[in-house]
Amino acid sequence: MDSLIECVPNFSEGRRPEIIRQITDVIEAVPGVRLLNVDPGKATNRTVVTFVGSPAAVVEAAFQAIKKAGEVIDMREHKGEHPRMGATDVCPLIPVAGITMEETAEWARRLAMRAGTELQLPVYLMRPPRQTRTEAIFRSSVRVSTKVSSRRYGCPNGGRITDPMNSMRVAAERSSGRGISWLLTM
Q1: Looking at the domain assignment, is residue 186 inside a domain?
Q2: CATH code of residue 95
């Protein structure tokens, strides 16, 4: 059986369909990815997107979406009922078939490292919940924040990330956002 993972990123835009479409267009442009759902919320000004595919394709689509969101969403002007950390608020990867949680977590680490290095974003990795016998699917989440918040959280070099792992640690230590747990060891 081929490996299949699901990605459910939340983007900090739920009111402007033209902006949402720019983000979903880059997801759909990646071969091997299928867009399943786009759920915008006007009150929260947040859109939840769901797509599936092979791990490599899903991680590429997620990276492209994170990049596009950072280009088209200005968090300085954002207003909504739900607090958020950046243009891409969360980006969970979920094992669906033919892949373990540990393998999915490795793909999440690759995505986090790439976003931190290439996009120079502070990234927070959430630990998956502890597995019990009755639980079958767990999430490995990537929290991604905008370039603006890298300065706000006091990342080295005036917000320019030269060492993504150190910058991720600094940002996590100085963040007051809810739901952020300690970083996974990479």
Answers
A1: no
A2: 3.30.990.10
Report yes or no: 32 and 82 within 8 Å, Cβ to Cβ: no
Residue positions annotated with a catalytic role: 82
**What pLDDT digit, counting tens, does each position of 46-69 carry?**
999 999 999 999 999 999 999 999
Q: pLDDT digits over 89-143, tens only?
A: 889 999 999 999 889 999 999 999 999 999 988 888 876 655 543 333 333 334 3
Cα–Cα dist 46/2, whole Å? 32
Residue 182, in any domain of the structure: no
173 CB-near residues (< 8 Å, 6+ apart): none
150 Cβ neighbours under 8 A, 6+ residues apart: 120, 121, 122, 159, 160, 161, 167, 171
Q: Which of 130, 128, 152, 163 is nearest to 142 (CA)?
A: 128
Distance of CA 23 to the CA centre of its chain: 13
- Domain extent at residue 37: 4-174
